[in-house]
Design a protein that fits this description.
With about 300 residues, the chain is of the alpha/beta class. Strands 2-1-5-10-9-6-7-8 form an eight-stranded parallel sheet, sandwiched between helices. The chain is globular and about 50 Å long.
Length: about 300
């Protein structure tokens, strides 16, 4: 099955400053790792992305939030909050990142199907309907899910988030929705302080959020086991027509922003667990979107392991 890679050098133009963790060097480290693996690089189907439209963004974010971000940047603002620096190109880059996620959905929902990995920045899973935060402007994963439903008629979407930080924005967007199941493993207590086990959604969405908070230093085999068990639990009652992964590689044991203990091979095995559900229920369709991962010496290898497992 084809694996599509969505990357654009425009993503490097979101300037966060030399000292910030979420830097353009992250993507350069990944592209260097892929270039060094010619066998993998030649198998990837590279796709050009289009920017998200206002309509695309407004399926998940308020018009006021979108307008305020653009106005702030147009007037030379430098920090949307303490953690979220921006530059003159950041709005357009964030629209392209969201658009890459949408383009990835188009690729996987085409008749030929397949999987897709979006190598983009800024990340998205902390962005709420009303607020950018935590390095994130727009919630790429959520925008992709809503697009799949609105344009491709997908009824059920499973979002799997294995970033070291809880995807609070994604959870909030789908909190009362039974058509999107949000599943997260994350370090706790840790930024942003959300994602308790008892947080399961409300109204129609009650039972369609599953959080598994993990203590710092949780052994990789234990982490993997709860991840596998949770996916089996989800599959027993939710059969997705599309699976989207918030692929945060800051849950790697060497990442500076977390203290979980996963290695490259763990990401590969977790990817295979996700594919088992996708192969049974969604024709193998998986869209994976880069979130965190801040060790520049390790990120490329983690992404390479993930991509190799998608085949």
């Amino acid at each position: 099955m084809a694996v599509h890679l969505l990357y654009d050098e425009t993503f490097l133009r979101h300037d966060t400053g030399e000292m910030h963790f979420e830097t353009s060097r992250r993507l350069k480290s990944v592209t260097a790792a892929l270039d060094a693996d010619q066998n993998l690089a030649q198998r990837l189907h590279r796709v050009t992305s289009r920017p998200a439209t206002m309509q695309d963004l407004q399926r998940c974010h308020s018009e006021e939030m979108i307008r305020d971000i653009r106005t702030f940047i147009d007037h030379g603002g430098t920090h949307l909050d303490t953690d979220t620096p921006v530059s003159e190109n950041s709005f357009d880059v964030a629209c392209l990142a969201a658009g890459a996620a949408i383009t990835a959905v188009d690729c996987t929902m085409a008749e030929s199907g397949g999987r897709a990995f979006v190598l983009s920045r800024p990340p998205g899973h902390h962005a709420t309907p009303y607020r950018p935060m935590g390095f994130c402007l727009f919630n790429n994963v959520a925008i992709a899910a809503r697009y799949a439903q609105a344009i491709h008629g997908v009824e059920k979407v499973l979002i799997v988030d294995w970033d070291v930080h809880h995807g609070n924005g994604t959870q909030e967007i789908f909190w009362a929705d039974d058509s999107v199941f949000f599943f997260s493993t994350h370090q706790s207590p840790h930024y942003p302080g959300t994602g308790a086990r008892e947080d399961v959604g409300e109204g129609k969405g009650s039972g369609y959020t599953l959080n598994i908070p993990l203590q710092a230093g949780t052994p990789a085999n234990s982490h993997r086991q709860v991840f596998t068990d949770a996916l089996k639990e989800i599959e027993s009652r939710f059969h997705p027509q599309l699976v989207i992964v918030s692929a945060g590689f800051d849950s790697h044991r060497g990442d500076p922003l977390g203290r979980l203990m996963l290695e490259d091979e763990d990401f590969a095995e977790m990817t295979k667990d996700v594919l088992k559900i996708a192969d049974k229920h969604s024709g193998g369709r998986v869209v994976s979107i880069l979130e965190g991962g801040y060790n520049l010496d390790l990120l490329g290898g983690s992404v390479r392991s993930h991509l190799s497992a998608l085949f």
